[in-house]
Write a structure and sequence with these properties.
Order of helices and strands of chain A: EHHEEEHEHHEHHHEEHEEHHEHEHEH
Largest interface: A-B, 64 and 103 residues
Oligomer: heterodimer
Shape of chain B: globular
Radius of gyration of chain B: 26 Å
Distance between the termini of chain A: 50 Å
Pfam families (chain A): DUF444
Largest sheet of chain B: 4 strands, mixed
CATH topology of the largest domain in chain A: Rossmann fold
Strand order of the largest sheet of chain B: 6-7-8-9
InterPro entries (chain A): UPF0229 (IPR006698)
Structural class of chain A: alpha/beta
Family (chain A): Belongs to the UPF0229 family.
CATH architecture of the largest domain in chain A: 3-Layer(aba) Sandwich
Strand content of chain B: 5-15%
Number of helices of chain A: 14
Number of helices of chain B: 21
Helix content of chain A: 40-55%
Distance between the termini of chain B: 68 Å
Shape of chain A: flat
Strand order of the largest sheet of chain A: 10-9-8-11-12-13
Largest sheet of chain A: 6 strands, mixed
Protein name (chain A): UPF0229 protein M8523_05585
Organism (chain A): Lichenifustis flavocetrariae
Number of domains of chain A: 3
């Protein structure tokens, strides 16, 4: 008998099957994920989850008899009171067959439930979203480079000498040019010596000496290693894509921002953060809050402390530009910014903000998203176009011109995901499908 | 058996196991199984796996390797979900009909469970696989793993060459016909799965060798004349009627590529491999359960396991052989472990302590005194259907209080109790139960009856309706669509009352052009 311990074999043998299954159920799973994510809190958003999809599309049909109709017999254990010839009235459904058959049927029509891993979940959620200008930026900002091996060259520094390659060339050259082997020479010399001491075949001795001198001359002409053999490992500088991003969160924390608004903003930031994290190896977050003056704070303060004061948006933009210049040089960082506000701004600051945004902030950023958070009740006022806020009107003009700028209004928690999706939707081919 | 090697010491104590212990347990069981009970088994290979690997094995129908298809992923997701939520536990073991016989056991099991599992799978099932005539006739225990390896590589290669989608669609279609891809009657040739991949490789090499692009340019002259008339001969050449639909398609479908035929063949072979397992579920489990019960008993009697372990064993044993009554909430059909075990025990009782009734019903085995001798014969030569119709005793019918209920269809207002566990009912009940295990009774009888090769190439199938039970309409439509895609012309399926020849219903499907080669 053999006992084999398979525990160390990698599990996940059916991963390929699972991927095929998900690919098949992709459209449905995606829909299920979106529905599901609506009522999830941010905190456990980047975990997997259980979703259910209609079993219809995943049916594996077989030829089998219908569960109802016709003459049927059943054999059951545990008779207590029946005798031969008794009758048992059928239940209302009529169909016949035993209870167990009915249950099986019911099962079949049910939704198919399964658990997605975190990666699968987020993949499906973010599938057709894209970071705007990602490609352009990484190509444009390739100032940092790294060296990669790239074949061999005939010149280089001695440190990069490739011995194997050189010796291989040398060997093939020696074989090709028929360089005499040192063993042959030694054998020849030994024979000459033997002949010389015996001295009974001078003709042969003479002949051997001639051969020897000929071979020695050849050995001189065909060197062991020729400069032609020498190869160096070659390195090439390859531009390294910038794989880090910084995300600026700007928020108005004046008294007019309610808890509800802050909550909306937080959800939006969290989504953006998860999304960025999936695209970049390293993501930093900078929180800048502002009233009439702006400061950088930590996350907790950012979301939870209330302040009083006026509202001067330009102060936050200035702060952002300052920090970006100081700590996040454009060449090394992909810069994203998201601003959340209820739309208030002091009238005197409007032009200054607009100018600052256009000339200072936007050139720095990959993407700037402005999220206007409103009161929950506003959403319900149907057929009434809400008055555009100060900031909205200012930004609207900018949005028309630039591609790196997007703005949206959100009143209710439910709208966060759709709005996020709209902001980052892959442009051009929104109707994504499996290539058939 | 005075020569039995009795060991004074226990095989193990406590719950934890190690490899030396498993070896020791296996050897001790082998002494009992081979020596005392005269079981005849393949060599054993015991593999220890984790929960996750068990879930993996579940989704590839218990085989250690299998080709890739989304439906297995679906099963995996389903099982995993159930397991995570605690809705269902995992099997303690999976055993594969191969030589050597591979049993998977889970690392979490306690040592008593491992002992039970080894006795159950590595000896009980193993003996059954090696000796039952259906397995001998239909499956090739030597070749199966090799063949699965071939199938996996071949299908992966097809995915590379012809694209995931085309392969997936072909497999979908083949799977939908899997239940009708088996030969139900033995053929001349012994199954030999090992030569399958050689055959396929040779065929491809030959094709590559004789390939000549010039043939493409040869102008086509008038079509060869169809020799009309000889109807009998035509049907004989097509091997009609044919109940193995996959076989028929593989050989006859006009527009399949050769790799698609090979895929049909693979699916067909695998269906054939599993065909005996469906017909011997009751006996197979009964045999294994009976063996582990006797073996554990002997281990306890000879002092190789202690009372605690024996009690632990008895608890899981009684869980396995529990049969709820029909009005119990837990009732979901007859438990094959319970009925199988009860019947094996009943045969033992008849062989050793028969009553007068038993002597009348089973004259040939009553009182012969050697239960394992009788049972070995039974295990070798019967399948569920014939086993029940031979060996279900009145004693057991009374014990289980079996009764038969009949539903006469739509017209009848009430169900009728046809037979109960009394003198008049025994034979009826035995026949009725045996029918529940009879594949020709449970599977719909569907055959390819004709194909109109001269005309529109319509493929005609027929379902011989039994007891007025038609096919489930919606699924039949889906399967027929798959069938039409494989056949690439129209397909029709008639449901026919065999008594009158009347057509009860007709399903048709039209092929989607180029669907399988998308």
């Amino acid at each position: 008998m053999n006992i084999i311990d398979r525990r160390l074999n990698s599990g996940g043998k059916s991963l390929a099957n699972r991927q095929r299954f998900l690919r098949r159920a992709k459209a449905l799973a995606q829909k299920a994920v979106r529905n599901h994510s609506k009522d999830r809190s941010i905190k456990d958003f980047d975990q997997g989850g259980e979703i259910k999809i209609p079993v219809d599309s995943l049916r594996e049909p077989r030829l089998h008899r219908a569960p109802t109709g016709g003459h049927r017999e059943g054999l059951l254990p545990g008779n207590k009171k029946f005798v031969q010839g008794d009758t048992i009235p059928k239940d209302k459904q009529g169909g016949g067959g035993s209870g167990a058959e009915g249950a099986e049927d019911g099962d079949g029509e049910d939704d198919f439930r399964f658990v997605l891993s975190q990666d699968e979940y987020l993949d499906l959620f973010f599938d057709d979203l894209e970071l705007p200008d990602l490609a352009k930026k990484t190509l444009a900002s390739t100032e940092s480079t790294s060296l990669h091996r790239a074949g061999y060259s005939v010149s280089g520094s001695p440190a990069n000498l490739s011995l194997t390659r050189t010796m291989r060339n040398s060997l093939s050259r020696r074989v090709a040019l028929n360089r005499p082997k040192s063993e042959d020479l030694q054998a020849l010399e030994a024979e000459i010596e033997a002949l010389a001491t015996e001295g009974d075949d001078p003709a042969r001795l003479e002949e051997l000496r001639a051969t020897l001198s000929h071979l020695l001359a050849r050995i001189k002409r065909v060197p062991f290693i020729d400069p032609i053999d020498i190869r160096f490992r070659r390195f090439q500088a390859v531009p390294r894509p910038v794989a880090q991003a910084v995300m600026f969160c700007l928020m108005d924390t004046s008294a007019s921002m309610t808890e509800h608004m802050k909550d909306l903003a937080k959800r939006f930031y969290a989504l953006l953060y998860i999304f960025l994290k999936r695209r970049y190896r390293h993501v930093e977050i900078v929180f800048i809050r502002h009233t009439h003056e702006a400061e950088e704070v930590d996350e907790d303060t950012f979301f939870h402390s209330a302040e009083t004061g006026g509202t001067v948006v330009s102060s936050a933009l200035e702060e952002m530009v300052r920090i970006a210049k100081l700590r996040f040089p454009m060449e090394d960082w992909n810069i994203y910014a998201a601003q959340a506000s209820d739309g208030d701004n002091s009238a005197s600051d409007t032009t200054r903000s607009a100018a600052l945004l256009q000339q200072g902030v936007l050139p720095l950023c990959q993407y700037f998203a402005y999220l206007e958070v409103g009161r929950e009740s506003e959403a319900t006022q149907m057929g009434f176009i809400p008055r555009a806020t100060e900031l909205w009107r200012t930004y609207e003009a900018i949005a028309e011109g630039g591609q790196r700028f997007a703005m949206c209004k959100v009143n209710h928690r439910n709208e966060i995901y759709p709005v996020f999706r709209r902001l980052f939707e892959r442009k051009g081919h929104s109707a994504q499908g499996e290539p058939a | 058996m005075s020569t039995t090697i009795t060991r004074p010491s226990l095989l193990y104590e406590g719950n934890d196991w190690d490899f030396a212990m498993i070896q020791r347990i296996h050897d001790a069981i082998a002494v009992i199984a081979h020596g005392e009970f005269k079981l005849d088994t393949y060599a054993n290979q015991i593999e220890i796996i984790t929960t996750e690997q068990m879930l993996d094995a579940y989704s590839s129908v218990g085989m250690p390797l299998f080709y890739k298809h989304w439906s297995f992923g679906k099963q995996f997701a389903h099982h995993e979900m159930g397991y995570r939520k605690g809705l269902r536990g995992l099997a303690y073991e999976i055993v594969i009909n191969s030589d050597p016989c591979i049993s998977y056991i889970m690392e979490e099991n306690t040592v008593t469970m491992q002992t039970l599992v080894i006795a159950h799978a590595a000896f009980g099932h193993n003996h059954f696989f090696k000796n039952n005539y259906l397995f001998k006739q239909w499956t090739d225990a030597n070749g199966i793993l090799h063949y699965l390896d071939f199938a996996k590589t071949y299908i992966a290669e097809c995915e590379q060459r012809y694209g995931h989608l085309a392969v997936e669609r072909t497999l979908d279609a083949a799977h939908s016909l899997m239940t009708h891809g088996v030969h139900r009657y033995p053929r001349k040739r012994k199954p030999d799965l090992a030569s399958e991949d050689r055959r396929e490789r040779d065929r491809r090499l030959h094709q590559e060798k004789i390939y000549n692009d010039l043939w493409r340019t040869v102008p086509v002259t008038g079509k060869a004349k169809v020799s009309g008339g000889d109807e009998e001969r035509r049907r004989a050449l097509l091997e009609l009627p044919q109940e193995n639909i996959l076989y028929f398609l593989e050989k006859t479908a006009p527009r399949l590529a050769s790799w698609q035929r090979e895929i049909l063949r693979i699916v067909r072979h695998i269906a054939q491999y599993f065909y005996p397992q469906g017909q011997t579920k009751l006996m197979n489990e009964g045999c294994a359960t009976y063996c582990h019960y006797r073996i554990m008993g002997r281990l306890f009697d000879t002092g190789q396991i202690n009372e605690g372990s024996y009690l632990e064993f008895l608890q899981s044993h009684t869980n396995v052989v529990m049969q709820p009554e029909y009005d119990d909430r837990r009732y979901s059909g007859i438990n094959p472990y319970a009925l199988g075990f009860a019947m094996m025990q009943d045969i033992e009782r008849i062989a050793t302590k028969p009553t007068d009734e038993d002597r009348e019903w089973f004259p040939e085995i009553a009182g012969v005194g050697d239960p394992f001798g009788v049972l070995s014969h039974v295990w070798a030569n019967y399948r569920d259907e014939s086993f029940v119709s031979q060996f279900l005793s009145p004693h057991l019918i009374r014990q289980w209080k079996l009764f038969q209920v009949v539903d006469d269809g739509e017209k009848a207002k009430a169900l009728r109790v046809e037979a109960i566990h009394d003198e008049r009912g025994y034979r009826n009940l035995r026949r009725a139960l045996s029918r529940q295990y009879d594949v020709s009774w449970t599977d719909p009888d569907i055959q390819v009856v004709d194909v109109d090769l001269g005309g529109d190439r319509r493929l005609m199938l027929q379902h011989n309706v039994l007891n007025g039970i038609l096919l489930q309409e919606r699924e039949t439509r889906d399967v027929l669509q798959h069938l039409a895609d494989l056949w690439s012309y129209d397909v029709s399926l008639r449901e026919i009352d065999p008594a009158t020849g009347a057509v009860l219903k007709e399903h048709t499907a039209t092929a989607r052009p180029h669907f399988l080669t998308a």
